[in-house]
Write a structure and sequence with these properties.
single chain, 97 residues, alpha+beta, three-stranded antiparallel sheet, two-stranded antiparallel sheet, 5 strands, 19% strand
């Protein structure tokens, strides 16, 4: 790992290799998304107090993106520095003419 200079101390970057997240990655991946939105104005308007945010945001992330783990469309880096939860689009039913 290469150190990155920052804020007067060394920060070690984790792996940037992206992989498909397994179901065992769900909790730390959701935690990463929760942390990523901790200062988001809409999320914090919904839950202005830290305790409210930490109690509810993981459930929201799981409700909206949790199925990505079941479909193989959740991705993460090895150290969970980055997470993407993609939901596949449902195909429209074929039209009958």
């Amino acid at each position: 790992m290469n150190p990155i200079e920052g804020a007067g101390h060394d920060v070690h970057a984790g792996s940037t290799a992206v992989r498909i997240a397994a179901s065992t990655d769900k909790a730390p991946a959701v935690d990463t998304v929760v942390l990523a939105f901790a200062a988001d104005p809409v999320a914090r308007w919904s839950w202005p107090h830290g305790q409210q945010y930490l109690a509810n945001m993981p459930r929201l992330v799981s409700a909206f993106g949790g199925r990505a783990f079941d479909h193989g469309s959740a991705h993460c880096t090895d150290a969970y520095g980055g997470v993407a939860l993609w939901l596949r689009r449902k195909r429209a039913a074929a039209r009958v003419a």
